[in-house]
Amino acid sequence: xxMQKLRKTTKYFMWVIAVIFVLFIFFGFGSNMIRxxxxxxxxxxxxxxxxxxxxxxxxxxxxxxxRMISGAVGIDPxxxxxxxxxxxxxxxxxEILNEQLNKxxxxxxxEQVIDIVKNSPPQEILADTTFWIGGQFDYNxxxxxxTSPRASRFVSDYAQQIKENVPKGILAGEINSLVRITNNELxxxxxxxxxxxxxxxxxxxxxxxxxxxxxxxxxxxxSNNQDLFRREEWVRLGYLSFPVDIDEEMINSRMDLxxxxxxxxxxxxFDTLVRxxxxxxxxxxxxxxxxxxxxxxxxxxxxxLGTKTGEITGPVQSEEGLHIFKLINRERNRLNLKEIFLPxxxxxxxxxxVQTEIVSVxxxxxxxxxxxxxxxYTPSYLTYGIGYLPxxxxxxxxxLDEVEEGEISYPLVGRDSLYLxxxxxxxxxxxxxxxxxxxxxxxxxxxEARESAREYARxxxxxxxxxxxxxxxxxxxxxxxxxxxxxxxxxxxxxxxVYLASNLREGKASPPIGxxxxxxxxxxxxxxxxxxxxxxxxxxxxxxxxxxxxxTVFYHGWLYDLRKKAEIKxxxxxxxx
Length: 577
Hints:
The chain is α+β, with helices and mostly antiparallel strands. The protein has helices at residues 2-8, 14-21, 38-42, 55-65, 77-104, 110-119, 123-126, 139-147, 152-176, 183-194, 218-224, 248-264, 270-277, 298-304, 348-367, 437-460, 495-502, 532-565; strands spanning 44-48, 51-54, 132-133, 136-137, 196-205, 231-243, 288-292, 312-317, 321-330, 334-343, 380-385, 412-413, 417-429, 474-477, 513-515, 518-528, 568-570.
């Protein structure tokens, strides 16, 4: 289960992946930035290992990309805020990586950059069919572009991308060269992914054997079994959610715009209107060409019903926004469509109203020696392991890097809400007996009950045949599953029992095993073994994919470790309060 453990570490650094490898589009609130003391004089937004990241850097990245998120229908203020946070995350990670590049003396010379520009055209050029002749890329046409004065900005930007990204690729290659897949890992993962089996089992609840009082002193049990109560380091967070809703006025305004676009289409080419107004919906591309009718939502097919070739229909409202369609052609089972998409998102006024409210609550909580939530708000809570990230769609920035009880976040952004978090509790090691007395007693009673249930099972269920209707408990059987997909198959068995079953001989029943509030007896009914021919055919590609997966996990873990060890000071909260 080595790779399974490695995969768990991806929770450590998922935001790092986006920061390093995605071209961000940014917007921020620089004009509202508030500084005090040394921060104001140095105008810093963050600091990494003593090296400052100033507002000018932040603003430069912002200004170079601002056109990518502005458009005829404005900007989603929540997306604007999320992208603003991503700027700071990116600059922090770039500074950490630059430090490593300098230590390892990794760089590309101007001569190398020129050579790459000449011999490796960017993807947007390679995808342009005007540069292809007879099925081959025409480098002469590409060289004409490079020597054109009008392309100087394009060439400069491409060269800068190479100068920034190629050293990072070399660094990643150096780190990944340390990773190798062993034969044991290969076999282990192949078994988890491919070996199928099905089981039958008896599950006996232990509730019937739970007594009212334990047979020995809870203090003695606690003293002799302290490891049972050892906590993985975890944090309990409290939070308030402040939804930023789409108001009726915004919907009506967007509907008026959609109708005006349809009116303009009488005199302006539809393709021109697509370029002017349309946004790209998240999760899919715009309709532009032949689409199977079965692939369209019912609301779209209903709107297009009876539409003639060349006609424009809409606006059709969905959860995403408003859709305007032009029917280019029609066949029996498919439609040739073009689409204009207008997103629906909260107004800036609605966003600022929520922002003002959450800032007020944050300041109130910071003024309290003990966190008292105002009565009008209902807090929620979640727990997560230190070193992981909570399972909630929020950009935490550096708030959770060093957690301390009572710490309160600045307003954080989610997909459709702003959030305020505070650290309710931080638990490490083994709690004192007085703090968990009731838990110790419950654990004792459950342990004694499980042993009684196991004794019952040993006396009643003997041999390898499991009764269909046991006196206590129930018999279950499963479909075929693997160690990797048993949860997806809806198989309600603890992980410990599943892995035990994978090691049982076919037809052999296990002894009674207590897990949680149940005792299990399990038997493998059948296995689907992999043939030697199949293994020979699939192992080379499987090993290569596994190697790449392990390298990715290892590299991102290395990045996370660098970030954890770095001394980071983050003042981005001043942008939002």
